[in-house]
Amino acid sequence: MYGQNLVKNPSFEEFVNCPKKLGNLEEDLVHWNIPTLGSTDYFHACSQAMGTPKNFNGEQPAEFGDGYVGLYLYAPDDYREYLQATLTKTLKKDEIYTLSFYVSLAERSDFAIKEFGILLSENPLKVATTKVLSRMHLSKVPGDVSNTFEIRYSDFYSDDAAWVKVEKKFVANGTENYLIIGNFKDNKRTQTFKTKRRATEGSYYYLDMISLVGSGSESKGGNRTVAGNSRHYSTNEVHRFNNLLFEFDSFDISDDAIAELMQIVSYLNSNPTVSISIMGHTDAIGTAAYNQFLSKKRASAVAQFLMQHGIAANRIDYDGFGSSRPIGTNNTSSGRHENRRVEFVFTKNN
Predict the structure, then answer these.
(1) Where is the OmpA-like domain positioned along the sequence (predicted)?
(2) Pick the CATH number of 238-348 from 3.30.1330.60, 3.40.980.10, 3.50.50.60, 3.90.1210.10
(3) Scanning 101, 134, 184, 305, which has the fewest C-beta atoms within 10 Å of its C-beta?
(4) Radius of gyration of the chain (CA)
């Protein structure tokens, strides 16, 4: 049984002022704001200048009511726009939630993108940048900002006629009060598809009906069917993922690592008295404080994957060690790549 939507004004129908100009979302819209200096837009049928279905970036009827928002998820010089909402209550630790929303690519976009970035934070964000909301920015934000993930799709979000629903389940840390939607990758790391149009040199999306609901149940292991065969692991011994090496300044889990991670899921399901400790590491580039933050994010990404595949949160522990435990030289690119890793230890519970 799913609960009520924790997002206020989810379909952007409530407003203070009928929108009249670009980038005026914070002044016009109720319960939504912008966490950076980007100029996210609000559209409503009440307006001629910022109306629906026709507006400066194309034509798109609203899916729910008369309003929606628009934002650049990819643009020259790493320009980005984001959307931030205050949740109606703090998320419950270890509960499974489902986030969903509807998207449509604006007709004048040159590119479509592969995924939307999601950040759930303890405190509201207000960062003085028009560019990517980077991990360096997040490392300076007070409170917990560790619950981040991407909503991916089997094809690029390239439909500029219909609305496409995207959704993902995740496990809460118990500190989340704010929801931020956007693209947290720079242009080099963003997967794009060229739409053969030439107008904005960017990727502009309309968003509507944003929903965040709890399942009323906690993440539990032991009864989830998973792909792959379980292999044997020794307890109280450090193991290293063979296929889970990270790009520079990244904590994204690649498709190549999924099969190996699913073996861990299978093993934990087959051994319900075993717990796992996950340890993230970085190379030596960057400050000690930032590397500590990044290494913990890498360990957290693995922990989130396990919980999203049914492993109970109380069986998982994770931490980051920055660049303090190298296994290769930091003087070569191959050695640094080897140091950007995650290790784990299985422990049998008494």
Answers:
(1) 233-350
(2) 3.30.1330.60
(3) 134
(4) 21
